[in-house]
Amino acid sequence: MNSFASLLAASLLVACGGLRSTQPTDSYDFGPPPARLADGSRWSGIALEIRMPYWFDALTIEYRLLYDNPLKLRSYAASRWAAAPGQLLAQRLRQQLGLSGARDRNAETCLLRIELQELSQLFATPQQSSALLQGQATLLDTRRRTIAGKALAIEQPAASADARGGVSAMAAASAELGKELLAWLNDVEKRGRLNDCRATAGQHQ
Fold first, then answer.
1. CA terminus-to-terminus distance, the chain
2. Fewest 10 Å CB contacts: which of 24, 129, 135, 174?
């Protein structure tokens, strides 16, 4: 009995110690809604779709050490995204540009497809890092034929060498992405390539 009681007490101590050592997890998104970049429903005839590799579209916040095996993708142990990054980015861009959701598209809706290959915090040194959004934007017409394409590569410096700094830099990169997409859509519209997209060029000439 004494041996059993001793074993039970030791087990409880280990369990309690494990609970005390568990770190709380910080949850991040891209912050409050940003300022609207487009007026009214100008781009509501374009639906937005975000695609990215599954290892980037998880709740873990990823980073790379460029000075120590940049091929290794690492993640913060005590910090998480509040939702999948693809969802957070789509929400931010819809707020900025007034785009429709991918689920809302129909036969009269064009599609803006963004395929990201990189969404991570890159450390050039232990103290210096930046957030990188890199991929390709493709605009498809109502028949899903390519109207135009644009390479994406947006890098924003992080104010601190931690998850908080990386997330803030990623939010800044998403805001910059919205501005670049707006300028691109305006250019495509001026060239008369959006005539088939309802609530866009046909209503704003």
1. 88
2. 24
pLDDT tens, residue by residue, 119-140: 999 999 999 999 999 999 999 9
The residue segments making up the domain with residue 139 are 28-203
In a domain, 91, yes or no: yes
Distance (Å, rounded) from C-alpha 153 to C-alpha 21?
Answer: 40
CA distance readout (Å), 182 to 36, 38, 61, 125, 190 = 11, 8, 27, 33, 12
Give a yes or no: residue 138 inside a domain.
yes
Mean pLDDT within 78-100: 95
Q: Is 108 part of any domain? A: yes
User: What is the CB-side half-sphere exposure of residue 148 using CA atoms within 13 A?
Assistant: 13
The crossing angle, in degrees rounded to 10, of helices 85-97 and 163-190 is 50
Among 105, 122, 124, which residue's Cα sits nearest to residue 113?
Answer: 105
Query: Phi then psi for 148, rounded to 5 degrees?
Result: -160, 160
Q: State pLDDT tens for residues 142-186.
A: 888 999 999 999 999 999 999 999 999 999 999 999 999 999 999
Residue 8 lies in a domain: no
Domain count, the chain: 1
pLDDT at 17 over 50: no
